[in-house]
Protein 1
Amino acid sequence: MSKKLSKSPNFNPYWIYGTIILILLSLSFFGEGTIQASNKTNTSDFEKFLLNGDIDKVLIQNEKIAKIFLKREALERNEHRIASKKNLLGQINESGPHYSFEFGDLKLFQEKLEKARSRNLDFQYEFVTVENKFFDIILSFLPIIVIIGVWIFIMRRMSGNAGGGAGGQIFNIGKSKAKLFDEKKDIKITFKDVAGLEGAKEEVQEIVDFLKNPKKYTILGGKIPKGALLVGQPGTGKTLLAKAVAGEAKVPFFSLSGSDFVEMFVGVGASRVRDLFKQAKDKSPSIIFIDEIDAIGRARGKNNFTGSNDERENTLNQLLTEMDGFGTNTNVIVLAATNRADVLDKALMRAGRFDRQIYVDLPDLRERKEIFQVHLKPLKKTKTLDIDFLAKQTPGFSGADIANVCNEAALIAARKNRKNVGKQDFLDAVDRIVGGLEKKNKIISQEEKKTIAFHEAGHALVSWLLEFAAPLVKVTIVPRGRSLGAAWYLPEERMIVRTEQMLDEMCATLGGRAAEKIIFNKISTGALSDLEKVTQQAKAMVTVYGLNDEIGNITYYDSSGQSDYNFSKPYSEETAQTIDKEISKIVEKQFTRACKIIKTHKEKLDKLATKLLEKEVIFKDDLVKILGKRPFIEKNNTEIPPKKNN
């Protein structure tokens, strides 16, 4: 049974601020010599006292206040009973001042006094100046006080809620910014909510078993893993998988980003790391999830020309110590996610810190179907919608991309005032996401339109006649995004790529420029993206995959990411010239091959371009009617794909 501990009331610093303000206000009203009180009077009574000869002395203070001292005989009269206050011994107060009042113009007041003295009235008057020296000292320090106040205000704002509501203390800036998800209230995601990622889920399942039943492993001498690193492309579900681990294990889950450790003050990052692990140990067993860990986990000692990375390196050093140093707690597991594992420090990646590296790959066909089933649940879709068909439309799509497709399809259906989201809405959504917004109102001259039609027809013709080129199922000359036309393919999902497959794809990519060359005997700038693509493919064949006879079985690819090609190349100048020649040779050979195919089937190219000019968009059925069936066994991928050649 939990006991409630009595807590002392929190100290409120505003009491101090209020007290200081009251003291300053008091000092501004009361100066030296003004402590003794006097009775207030007015000008008419003062003139009456003056004519009666009751006044002994008038003290003009700071040229605006008159202090009146009465004679002894006047104090004994009942008229001045209030001014002549007696002490405990019955003695009359003769010291004064007995009255005071504030006059207006000093010159007029002085004239009244001189006129009274001219009547032989016996009294004196003099001028005095009373200074509030202590208040003047306070005013001299006012700029410093203001600066300190502004600094306190900024520090309080920067600390925010870092201390978990700890009274807004100044030094909360060193507290961790991790958000705690309580296992009983906040975490409701389990592995059932994570579609696909079967391989990654199997990897992290053991971590869940460790947290649920640690004795099952420790009794055999096993140790719970210190950490697991989730590596994958953006949008593949790394963060979602980490939440599912916490939901399955039923333990506290601390979530934050790598950038949350970074601050402008020295030592704050390391302090936040210490505080984070302290909180996690207090609630152990628990999970710490650091998203985008490359913000603090980059390799040390690289590009440190100005010393500006010292603070980040100190934060990383503290993280390394907390994960596997003296006094570490084995009941805290660290999960981290990044899509740039190649830049992380080797000390962070070693066994004992991140014991496991879990690769979260892009989903395959079956996993994409499962992801579609999750994101289609909230949509009002047609009953005949084929999820298998949608999964085939999206090779290379991540989970986030599929969620975007479903949302975009719903928006398109709503824009067209439909009651349900149908197949065509999803096809339009794929086109919209991959190719960009359709621009039917873009002004294009007839000559340009004809050039675009033959360019896209060239892509279609060459890819249709090549065995290893991706099946083409849609060609359009409607401007979309930054392209004036597009040829859409459904690429085969391959694990490895052979030389002939890469060469056929390069040849199909150059089919557009080859068509322009053969038909118009001219070339244009419309093939920019095609040339960029084939140049990169040729360069990869020569320098990365070792698919060139001249260079041989050598690769200049560095998977560790430690090489910096901006300052030095891993090959000699002579080799660089050979590489340039081989890249050019590969590209030109495929261009010549594409031109030969275009010349052989020029009539079919004309029919295809004419059809494009007429309909603007043609599909696989139109290609079959004009070009006939492909001259080889076609793979069973015949739907509209998310890849295109401009």
Protein 2
Amino acid sequence: MSNKSGLRAMRLSAVLSLLAAFAGAAGLCVVVAGFAVSAIEEASRHAVRDRLDVDGMAWAEVHTDGLQVFLAGTAPTEAKRFTALSVAGSVVDAARVIDQMLVEEAADIAPPRFAIEMLRNDSGISLIGLVPLETDRKKLLADLAEAAEGAPVADLLDAADHPTPETWAEALRYAVRALGQLPRSKISVSAEQVEITAMVDSPEAQHRIETDLARRAPEDVRLVVDISAPRPVITPFTLRFLIEDGVARFDACSADTEEARDRILHVAGQAGLRVKADCVIGMGVPSPQWARAVELAISAIGKLGGGSVTFSDADIALWAPQGTPQGQFDDVVGQLEANLPEVFALSATLPPPPSDSGPVVPEFIATLSPEGQILLRGRVGNAQARDTVTSFAKARFASDRVHVTARLAEGLPDDWPIRILLGVEVLSYLSNGVVTVTPDSLAIAGRSGRKSARAEIAQMLADKLGTEEQFSIDVVYLEDIDPVASLPTPEDCEADIANVQRARKISFEPGSATINASGTQIMDEIAEILKKCGEIEMEIGGHTDSQGRDEMNAQLSLERARTVLNELRLRRVLTSSLTANGYGESRPIADNDTEEGRETNRRIEFSLIRPEPVPEVETGLESLEEPVEEEPGAEKTVRDQGGNEQN
């Protein structure tokens, strides 16, 4: 028995030893596996972290748990979140990457910027851009077609359902009117700004349109205007500078470049020019050395102390003052001839001293009165010449305004008919004045509403008579009679119409929208005022008394306002900027309880449409301003929300 027990004990001991060995091996494996997993976790975390940092994603957080890699943090955008996952998946197996990232909330979407590009050329009008959904597209297209005299309109606009900016409608109306004036243009419209780029046919049209656009620009909309005009072709290329009685001036000035203009004006200042002058920059210059030749000639006049120099293309005529010493004349002219560029030809004249006795100098005098009457007097060669001058004057001016008292005379120069016809033609450049023609000169004096009248007269005379002829031009520009500068302001137009209706009123047949006989003359006068005013935004408001139902009065007042608008159209008044509205009895200006008051309330009013004022918003600084301490006993003034004072 003892042997069996010992044998069992030995077997049990062997089994236990074997189990212990297995247990030790298992424990060792667990320890080794633990170290291996930790190493893999740490290596994965560092590898992913380093790659994210290299790609600029420091915002991402990396954690590991076993073989799993967790990405946390807040991504700036959804795209950044996806990029981080892709980067991590390129370092470790993508199946091991667990996404725990958040994405920043998107900021509020900014409202769209409403803007239109209006393009107009000979083919029609194109509209490109984004407009508010509530914009009346049909009316916009109709207004454009009317302003552009039926030109086709291509609508390429998109619309967005966002609130309309306050000044959008006003800017759009202004742009439509401007497009109607400019057949070749691009107009960019937004609520804050209207930018106009266009080309017109002449500098005169450029000045007129720029003046009109600036005058009618909306107050709360910025205006940017770039209107260009082709440089005029000046034929002949003319310049005339003279010094009379110590006063220097240009009768005409032409230059081929801005640099040439500046050089010419600079040397004129050195010669004594003290008034503001300008040179027309145009094409047709006879030589690139034009500015150099003009500088030399004007300097010569300055050295002589007077006289005149006239350029007609490459021909130069210089007249020295009467009484200039012969030696001084020879020195100045000789130096000028030696220095002039090759293409220019100089003719210099020193008038002889005046003689105490001599024959009577024949004259022909053409006069234009401020009332527009033409008087022709003096000497003509024969009856045929007188008839020719009379017919020419009646063709230039109205027949009933021409009066001829010229007498026949013999011994006149051969070119006398041409000279007197030129004298009559010169009057067409003046508002009033007189032209005196003698065998040796033409003298023009008068007033004009055209800034360029003096230069145009000088250019014409130099072309027709030649550069060697003597003529003097004393034409004064008056802004008051300038058809562009003297345009009335919209406020003046409103006041003039109110004055017409102050003593009389537009009356209608009882209970109808038909203007009675007495209203015809008033409509004529109002139409003439509006024709002078051009396109101004104005409302024709119809008003009634309180008799009758409100709905009927409102409809009647609207029909009467529309009748007035139609009457203006029949009188060829531009009505695209006029609107007709009816207010019925809602806006009385007198007591409806009396017949006199009711008659006063039945009326048509013309009023300017002015932009709505933009309310001021109190800023943070203004709200922090300290209140002003008032003196003791002073009455405190408070304003309500409408801006009215309340004590």
Protein 3
Amino acid sequence: MKRSKPPLLLMASLAMLGATGTQASSHREAPFITSRPKVDASDFYMFRSYETGRDGYVTLIANYQPLQDAYGGPNYFFMDTQALYEIHIDNTGSGVEGLTYQFRFQDKRAGLAVTAGGKSIPVPLTNIGPITATDMSAQNVVESYTLTLVTGDRRHGTAQPIVDASTGSTSFSKPLDNIGNKSIPNYPDYANTFIHTITIPGCSTPGKVFVGQRMDGFVVNLGETFDLVNIKYPVEELAPVGVNARNSQPNSLADKNVTSLALEIPIACLTAGADPVIGGWTTASVRQAGVLNSTPESDKSEAGVGAKTSPTGPFIAGGPWVQVSRLGAPLVNEAVIGLPDKDRFNASKPKDDAQFVDYVTNPSLPILLQALFGSAGVVAPNVYPRADLVQVFLTGVPGLNQPAHVTPAELLRLNTSTPVTPIATQNDLGVIGGDVAGFPNGRRPIDDVVDVALRAEMGVLLSPMDGSATDPDPKSDASRKLHYTDGAEPNPANYLTVFPYLMTPIPGSPNGATK
């Protein structure tokens, strides 16, 4: 039975984590962003903190620069000093930011050199000796950042600096990437010294911030998925007795790192009025224009090495900010939005998501999965438009995470009044696994959004499934009950139980000092 078409804005946009199912959350998901990896957002997490004694806070984590190989030196994965990274909060259900946390990065070169044959020669490395939190004399490049809170419109609202609660400084230090165990002997302790307590304008309780490299917490069987879903057991019911199909395939990101922008903010400083539901997303923007800036001959040093460089660097950027990356709910642009619109989605705002409506209400993934696995009983739901996905992933679910006054928009929604599920009893399938503190009610690092998305896309939310007169599609009942999976399951041991929750990054060299 087909349902009547809901109003255009009700079906609004693409959003859901739904038509996704099987891809990295947002890794190299659009043509343009592949040319700008420093501003490529890979994952966005938003959840009520479950560290002991911190349940009065919400943790926000925006990951950038995906697919980092730990050995990616000598320059590693510094952030773009000419980009604007932002985390937005909608606390009115309007699809428009009410609060924006802006990150701007700076780097300083120490100019370390060695004497070779009586000449001072600049070194080509990021460090020339071991680094500790108290001794950075061997560090050749130092990164820092500023953090600004904008209330109202991100470009025209009221901007106020967030400061270090201990020092009053508006500049925050950032750790080096995990070069290896000889360069940074105890990376966990070293990185922890870069967790800063922050004073937030208008907020009586301090929060926390950490920016630095982390082990990628997203779990997905990426290579086999892109190979026409070349997965041995794409459905749990197809696996032999005794085989855990959800843990039968490799996690393609198990050896990758990311750069995390992590905030922990008091709940009372995020919500507005009596409504406990907030929406969140992250964006990155670059300047509208840019030119290469070659060093003039007159600026070259007569010594031949250690040439002077332009104070503006090899690239000059100017003009207004232009958004080039956007991520709220996982997997949307990667697996929902069609190829012609991927760059446009990355440049768009949640309030304008009605323009992508057909990708949500008439998703392509179920049709593709039926074509690939129809002989195994996979049947695409024949229900259009998919109002079930609209409610769950665009407007929020009534009684779970729907704002009191909602404009459908693609963002991650969290009910901050939902009690925290202790780490030991968290279910990685979130709400469909009986854990209402998990995805899509926000998103925790442990949540297996790929499997949840697959099952949602294939109709687990369409009910009833009993062949009755109210059954929306009896022919797909059996298929909708199947437990779809990409075969890669999160391991709780791979996450921290305290802020910033994502694990210490993989080192570029596992060997310690040999002499």
